[in-house]
Amino acid sequence: MLTLGQAIAASFAIALVIFSERLFPFALFSKKDPPALISFIERYIPSMIMAILVVYGFKDVAFSVAPYGIPYILGIAAAVVLHLWLKNPMISIFGSTIIYMILSHLM
User: How many whole angstroms separate alpha carbon 100 and alpha carbon 75?
Assistant: First the structure.
């Protein structure tokens, strides 16, 4: 068991480490442009991850058995429509997840 003083010291040490980790990229890249690798990751990785998630999400869907993947397809369609309409990733993610969950429970 930790004493109160040890717990407070540990909390401050952890807070200092987390603050330092968050500060590091800003301190490193504040005066100059980031390296080409960072620019590449910033530009292309999000769309690559989304493509992987779509493929992974559809890998176990049985399109030959009822409900024939309808909740999955409508969930993806909702994500696309919401994102093109509102241009807000959080609304797209949460809205399409809610639609998928409702459809998967109803079908």
Answer: 5
Dihedral sign, CA of 88, 89, 94, 98? positive
Q: Is the pTM of this model over 0.90?
A: no
CA–CA dist 47, 53 (Å, integer): 10
| Short-list 102, 101, 82, 85, CA closest to 93 | 82
Q: What is the 3-state secondary structure (H, E, C) of the chain?
A: CCCHHHHHHHHHHHHHHHHHHHHHHHHHHCCCCCCHHHHHHHHHHHHHHHHHHHHHHHCCCCCCCCCCCHHHHHHHHHHHHHHHHHCCHHHHHHHHHHHHHHHHHHC
pLDDT tens digits, 50-81 = 889 889 988 999 999 989 999 999 999 999 99
